[in-house]
Amino acid sequence: xxxxxxxxxxxxxxxxxxxxxxxxxxxxxxxxxxxxxxxxxxxxxxxxxxxxxxxxxxxxxxxxxxxxxxxxxxxxxxxxxxxxxxxxxxxxxxxxxxxxxxxxxxxxxxxxxxxxxxxxxxxxxxxxxxxxxxxxxxxxxxxxxxxxxxxxxxxxxxxxxxxxxxxxxxxxxxxxxxxxxxxxxxxxxxxxxxxxxxxxxxxxxxxxxxxxxxxxxxxxxxxxxxxxxxxxxxxxxxxxxxxx
Length: 244
Known about the structure:
Elements: E1 6-11, H1 15-25, E2 30-35, H2 38-48, E3 52-56, H3 64-72, E4 83-87, H4 92-100, E5 105-108, H5 113-130, E6 137-139, E7 142-147, E8 150-153, E9 158-161, E10 164-166, H6 170-180, E11 187-188, H7 189-196, H8 208-219, E12 229-232, E13 236-239
Parallel strand pairs: 1-2, 1-3, 3-4, 4-5
Antiparallel strand pairs: 6-7, 7-8, 8-9, 9-10, 11-13, 12-13
Helix pairs in contact: 6-8
């Protein structure tokens, strides 16, 4: 159990369900805020920046997919808040679309409160692991991080594979660092763009696929069989935690 309660925002228009969930979760390590519309939920999100969002798919003024898209497309501090989506729908396409938009998990109604709690804890554990700072090697005061034979020198802004310097543009280097800091986490193209937004972009800044291709040419042993940056079909990319 956490020594400090997690702050959870539940965006749900079923008052009976939200009251039940709030009562149950607050017996564990959560402090719960509840909003019954998408507008109210997003306003609370902006004001409070919770640790996790419990988001209903069907809302009276909008839908959960639109809220999810709005969160993940933001540049604000809450852009990467973990999202668990709830829905009464049985259509698996809703689940797929939600995950593609950046939701971290998906739970159909009706559900057991114990399963909800377990899923929330799992999401928060994953998020904590993903946001843990990289284990930097210090060499003469310079920061570097390695994944197998791949080395990123963060101060010199250089990339080496097996000790051989590889050429990347400044934007591609920033992109690679952003991916490496979230190793093991599947990121959508929109999430990747958000991570490097605000930097000096290049002519192809809107084509993540082009940049990923060029990064792969620089760091992969076999460009046709990449092992460092993997494609997750229909979703985006993941930077492999374990590399040779």
